[in-house]
Amino acid sequence: MKVSCLVSGGKDSIYALWCAFHQYEVVSIINFESDKLESLLFHIPNSKFVSLIAEMFSLPLISVKMKSDDLKEEIEQLTGAIRKSGTEAIITGGIRSEFQRYHFNRAALMANVKCFNPLWRLSPELIIQDLINNHFEIILVSVSSMGLDQSFLGKKITHQLTRKIRGISYGSDLAIIGEGGEYESFVLDAPFFPSRIVIQESQIHWNEFREEGSLEITSATLESKGKMRASM
Known about the structure:
By secondary structure, the chain is an alpha/beta fold. It has 2 domains: 2-116, Rossmann fold (3-Layer(aba) Sandwich), CATH 3.40.50; 124-231, putative n-type atp pyrophosphatase, domain 2. It contains 7 helices and 10 strands. The strands form 2 sheets. It has a 5-stranded parallel beta sheet with strand order 3-2-1-4-5, with helices on both faces. Strands 6, 7, 8, 9 and 10 form a 5-stranded antiparallel beta sheet that branches. The model is unreliable at 228-232 (pLDDT under 50).
């Protein structure tokens, strides 16, 4: 079956992409990006660098520039992107959000394709352990939860870091995986990546009043597991 994967660059969508490569013929990648807008459906931070992921796999990228954070318009844009992909099904990285699952399935239905969620209802603890044990190189690119301060931005997800987050969140599994919005992530390398993403320049934005912030990647390059391959 030919599938198109919704990829944000975050750990869940990259894990779902890995699953898709094992089961289907991945024919394209869909991503949403915006410089200013936030979204209830899509992971936005640093999503423009998904172009590097599409490049390393030589896959077509259907990149949607968000025009509005209105849910109806987001669904319409997603439906249009799915139709443009010419795929038989879409793959998402949803784990627990019924809201996202419902609307992704709705967009797929409107585009007359199937929607698969390979991580759906899997244990957050098992997912995060699998990512770490398989040497996914994942960094935190935004934090918005009490106890997760500016020092967490740019940190790699490790067993030690997850223990720290577990302690801050009183043992919540959903906080460990970031499903409650505690943090957002970006994947720099994975066992199935032919190249790794190297950050060249970045900057931190921190809101002292709201105690939340983000790490913005401003420049990154592809390095082919040993030598430089492309730049952006």
